[in-house]
Amino acid sequence: MLCQFTFQNFRSYRSETTFDFQATAIPEFADTLISGGKAGALLPVGVIYGPNGGGKSNLLQALSCLITAVVKPIQEMRKARTDIVIQQWADCASYLFDEESRSQPTEFEVFFRQEKKEYRYRLSLMEDEVISEALYWKAIGARRPGTVFEREKSEIALGASIDKAGINRSVNPKMPYLTFLAINYDIPVIVEVQKWFEACIIRNYDNPIVEGNILVPAGNPFQEKIIRALNDIGIDLTGYRIDETNKRLYTQRTINGHVFELYFDEESAGTKKLIGVIPLILWALQDGRLVVIDELDAKLHPKLLRYIISLFKNKEINTKGAQLLFTSQDMTTMKNTVFRRDEIWFAAQNEGHESEIYSLYEIRREDNERVNSTAAFDKQYLEGRYGADPYLSNMLAEENWT
Predict the structure, then answer these.
(1) Which of 42, 156, 261, 268 is deepest in the core (most CB within 10 A)?
(2) pLDDT for 48-67, tens place per residue?
(3) Where are the domains of the chain?
(4) Candidate CATH numbers 2.40.30, 3.40.50, 3.30.479, 3.30.420; the one for domain 2-200+289-395
(5) What is the per-residue pLDDT across 22-48, written as a single tens digit (0 to 9) for each?
(6) 120-129 CB contacts, 8 Å cutoff, 24+ apart
């Protein structure tokens, strides 16, 4: 489970930026939180709003870049220990509007829980080479972390949790040492971290090609769950078939005892989107995975978007701590009946053209009090009260049209 993600010098983000899945001490939707025992509760859902060009997608790209750096070589070497769900790999890119930043590394740090441990992994990259790297761990509830390894360029120091005998410390400068250890050794602490990274699902549904990528082949036992879920939300399918010869997908409907097939491209845009996304959601809920989706709301009816959100917030369904992080432009779900204040985040560029993020919980009113949990979040956002102004007031100003 993701606790916190921090990065800097990536695309539109120059300064250190942190997205937090750790729940704050507010009362709303307490029954939806992922219990962490001594370590504190985590949020099941996080959504990022903001104007076009504000940095929403780049935040997700930063997380995708870190996962790509660790997982892609493992997949290419066929050394994965977990089913890697279709991912979109992301390349590293420094802050765009500063000459100095181009000569500085891009830095990532991810803090997460796996089994009964907490891990903190840092990676610094520059021109595809690893500048520094470190992995730390501790038992949940413990105070002092232990070192798994630390790396500064080619210099690598191993901690007590790795048997030093026979462990190679010579590694390609472009490969993370975590990845190298995962590919070449069977070290329990590394395997646990490797599985977390491999389980992350990264998708961008702003790309229409992605909608045609079906996660589960026809005939797989998991297919029944997919069909049932699609039926529950009004997509009346009885099955689907993949023509292996021409790689075409056909949906199936049974009418008066006869099976009729429809080529996938002939389905509506919304139906195609659901057929693509529902398998990912079900897989995440089944295994307790993190799902990161850009433009989740694109082509979806607001009620269906709310339905997907509710699956992660229902502890009877989400029994293994799955989490959903997504970007959205849909105002109809920016409601206090859907989200906690710490689940809503905003991304926007400041006057220096640097992207920044902050949660609704962090915003203070003029009287220095926090936004009330009963406030009309969508209305106040459109009025520009939350800073990540979608610029509607400027666009609709009379002087712009005279």
Answers:
(1) 42
(2) 999 988 999 999 999 999 99
(3) 2-200+289-395, 214-268
(4) 3.40.50
(5) 999 999 999 999 998 788 999 999 999
(6) 120/145, 121/178, 121/193, 123/66, 123/69, 123/70, 123/176, 123/178, 125/69, 125/92, 126/94, 128/92, 128/174, 129/173, 129/174
